[in-house]
Amino acid sequence: MIKKIFKIILLSALGFGVLWTFYFLYNKSQQPPVVYKTLSAFDTTIIKKTVATGSVIPRREINTKSQVSGIIEKLYIIAGQQVTAGDVIAKIKIIPNMLNLSNAETRLHQAQISLDNAKLEYDRHETLFKQGVEAKADFSPVELKVKTANEELEAAENNLQIIKEGVTKSAGSATNTLVKSTITGMILDVPVKEGGQVIESNTFNEGTTIASVANMGEMIFEGKLDESEVGKVQLGMELVLTIGAIDKESFKAKLEYIAPKGVTENGAIQFLIRASIDKSNTGSFLRAGYSANADIILARKEKAMAIPESVMLFDKEKPYVEVETTSQHFEKRFIKTGLSDGINIEVLEGLKKTDKIKNPQINTAPKPEHGA
After folding, report:
1. What is the pLDDT of residues 131-162, one digit of tens each?
2. By the 8 A CB rule, do 292 and 55 touch?
3. Which of 283, 339, 343, 366 has the maximal Cβ count within 10 Å?
4. Has residue 19 been placed in a domain?
5. What's the structural domain count of the chain?
């Protein structure tokens, strides 16, 4: 009898254990209810903008070139130095062309011979004129011939000196061998060295650049804008420049040029734009060639009631959000939207600031524990 009772108790305990195990596993398999976070509309400033990439350059940059060919005898400047218009930046030593030199020397000899002959003839006619044998009308042409021969000799001497030295005695300080800055500004680059050869600038070649000079007080942004964005901008729009080398400061600029014709780059049509940079409120020195990104302000709305674009849904291209009616129960609410900056979007109609909006991307439900 005792054994039978013990057996019943054992079977009952075993059955209870099996039932409890099934109950535990069933509860374990059930997912906890999803609990969505909610948010409300808020006031913010929405700025719609497009971005252009480019660089900072001087508005006026001049490549100073030599007017004569030769060797750089002396450089008077270095990169970064300030110069004034008219300052001498280099001196050129003329290396004469042998053919031109030979022709100039021949011309000088011929001019000397012509002058000597004219003087002999002049002396003979002068004696006759003083003796009253020759009339003034006959003596005057001989006198003129001497003067002409003198002028030709002087011209030949000057021509020879120009070929040898690039300057004449009568020119004074004027000379092509001294290269002078044509503007006031900073020396950006000196691509030549003393002893280097230079070629004169003329109709057939650009000539050798001695130095690049620019006014660093007036800088502009020059960049490219995609054809899909260029129709949205217009002259006078405000730009905010971000320069990679100056990460703690931004610069204001104003759009002043949009190219009327685009160019193809990497399969896309790009339009050149320029903007004047306002440096009045900054102490940072802008170096020529800094890379920069320009945020072009297309539209701006202060104190706009907005929501994150991530909570907005669409039904047949009509925007809506899910608004909480009771705890974790939501209804569809169509809205009318306005300006967007890609993160937040303005709500014109359909919402109040007190409405709680479902955020479908955030789930605060606890994760089920693993292991029994």
Report:
1. 777 777 777 887 788 888 888 877 877 777 76
2. yes
3. 339
4. no
5. 4
